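User: Predict the complex.
Assistant: Input components as received:
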Amino acid sequence: MIEKLFGWVDDRVALSRSGRHLLNKIFPDHWSFMIGEIALYSFIVLLLTGVFLTLYFVPSGSDVVYHGVYAPLKGQTVSEAFNSTVNLSFQVRGGLLMRQMHHWAANIFVGSIVVHMLRVFFTGAFRRPREANWMIGTTLLILAIFNGFLGYSLPDDLISGTGIRIAFSITESIPFVGTYLGFFLFGGQYPGTAIIPRFFILHVLVLPLIIIGLLAGHLGMLIKHKHAQFRGRGARDDNVVGSPLWPTYAAKAGGFFFLTTGVTALLGAAVQINPIWQYGQYYAYKVSYAVQPDWYMGWLDGALRVMPSWEIHLPGHMVPNVFFPAVLLPGVTFNLIYAWPFIEARLTGDRAEHHLLERPRDQPLRTAIGAAVFAFYFVLFGASATDVLANYLSLSLNFVLWSFRVLCIVVPLIVFPVAYKICVELQSTKGAGQRKRHNVIVRSAEGGYATVSTPEYPGYIQPELDPVPLDHVDLVSAMAADGDEQAEGVYRIPREYR
Amino acid sequence: MSDTTEGQVHGAPDPGAQGLGGPGPGEQGHGGEPAGAAVPVATPVSIGSPQFAVAARHPRRAEGVAAFAFLVALCGFAGFGAAYWQDANNYLLGISLGVAFAAFGFGLVTWGKYLMPRGPFEEPRPQMATTERERAEFVGDFATRGKIAIERRGALGKLMGAAGAVLGVVTLFPLVRSLGPKPDSSMYHTKWRKGARLTSIDNRPVKVDDIEVGGVITVFPENDVGGALSQTVLIRVQATGNVVTGPGKETWGPDGYVAYSKVCTHAGCPVGLYQELTQQLLCPCHQSLFDVETGATPVFGPAPRPLPQLPLYVDAKGYLRAQAGFDEPIGPGFWYRGGSNGSPQ
Ligand code: HEM
Ligand code: FES
């Protein structure tokens, strides 16, 4: 039956002609390659849970009176967006789980993109021919942050509403076009009535479509280039060493998707996130204490806080304070990220193709720059909690703020030489990062002690194997011939391939 | 997988194809292309080679682990179904679903990692860069054909280009002109007018003895209650007398009252918290502090300008009213705001 069906399809698309080759596609193994996969899988979770949410969410700012089951809100006038989100959480079966999974998946999505990006950066995976994929990736990061912000704003609660207000102010601050942009985006002066429906369609349709398109390009290019790999036995610039797509990689990657989904579900079950019924409906004149955005907005919030109270006044015009931390800083940041592969090629003069990844220590300068820049944003992220820290540590707000102003300059200046030094030291330390041998000390009958050297992988039959060109062997007969009894594999895959 | 007869196991693969011996040459310095390197001698590979054995040392054990995981997944999914059916709480729903998915994934990963041929396997990776010749041929074809086509019908090309350009321009119009109005006088003036009564959110006009010393309330002009831009904080700092916050503002604070725009001059949050002890207004968004007695000048944080002050008077019946609107644009800055006091253009 299935064979017949496949035959019918195959006669029309000739899948088996090109497909057989695809089954043998090799994927290098390394734990750090999973980080990009987490991003991909959490995006799928976002799509699935998001579709569920759209079935119940009402994207409208119109007033309704709340009549749901949550007693403290009963009788209050709220917006339809807020009302439907609360109802979705309390009255739709599985609704709260889906909402919390969606929010957790969003945080994991952006988080894994950032970590994935760090891995690509520190291993030099962005070098030729992967510069374009690096730029697509950067665009994906920007879009992911934007879409997260849009989604976060939809429930129209007190905390996210404050975020929208700040977003309007930031838009307004752009020289020449800012006020126009703000009015076009919000359909008029703040707050307008258009923003929830507009954010909604951007969040559920426009940005996801763009993300899907770019992801297709990102992964398509990955397939074309074939995955970069670390050095290891048999790994060269002109080959790929690892496991085949079918069935090994498919099982591992598929399993990893379900693991990601499972973890997201557990978080959605056990860790509350964004309880909007506690914050209440947004009103422009209300504000709550300890206003904090989602984590990936933290660096911007921190930058807004540590920026001194300057603005530029020109005859008849001005450049507002928020322009510097919230428009200029992200603009410079992302443009530098886009340009990095080219900056580095210019610095090193290395414009050749590379498919072998580097370890961070191999390029001390790059690693030190990356670490220092990351440290800068990390301090800004910390600065988004100035008020909380001041409260918690019983320090004056003044002291905490000034500390962060100093730290965001000093910390990168310290991190840079330290990271550089660590790289250089690691380079010259023999066997750093390598598995240590056991030192077995034996005592002789006379009472003397002696150290006996042991093999590097005690008990391992053949720790490092040469790669087998899969195009030349029939994996099917090999697998069929391999009864479990005669299995003589090793327990672990050697470090180079992990 | 019935078709095992089809391929033969190649005891010794094509020796010229892949190097199997020893560590690879790696990257030979900067820009080193291993293309021309001598081909290493291939070691024969047989189907009995350890590369084809499963990766687990104890395959039975790995199989047991995977089986257990799938069993847990089965129970978990069933449990989720039951929980959903019974409309159980979020916790039960999520834990059953999460455990099931995680176990399912764990089983699958175990299967793939330990019960499949251990490898490693390899395949060749072609260079990305094309050869001079490939490129020359492609570009030649593309450019010459295009050139001939366009040159032969030059006028057509120009007309088509012109049509496209017009399309490009007109698509901008609806985008820009129907999304929203152009910035208007609301950038410079709120709904506060001369004589507007200060009205609380529940629509009650505020009378002079409604608020005690140290009290604070959010007020709006009576025709814009709840307005995002006209929101104003009214504070009673003393029992009697005018509060003078600066030269020219001698009459703005009658009977111990002062009123400031509630929209933070930093990024527009409502300046929500009044600290009576220090006479300061705090914006909770980025902790800007404004000194109430000196005209809401910013004393801490990123806010660059004082909160504009609303001049007040008390009418014959004791209602608080605005002498006029704010004398400068309220809230955060914008390009067309003008100089430091933002004279509306
Ligand atoms: C929507 C977000 C993203 C998803 C779903 C995603 C997914 C993936 C996946 C699954 C891979 C292959 C596995 C791996 O190397 O980890 C990959 C490779 C890659 N990604 Fe991403 N990625 C995203 C964002 C980014 C970002 C922000 C960057 C950097 C700016 C980036 C740059 C790259 C590069 C250069 C490769 C090729 C790496 C190699 O061949 O070694 N990606 N991406
Ligand atoms: S909005 Fe008030 S301090 Fe930033």
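Helices of chain B lie at 59-85, 90-114, 132-152, 154-179.
Let me know if you want any component modeled separately.
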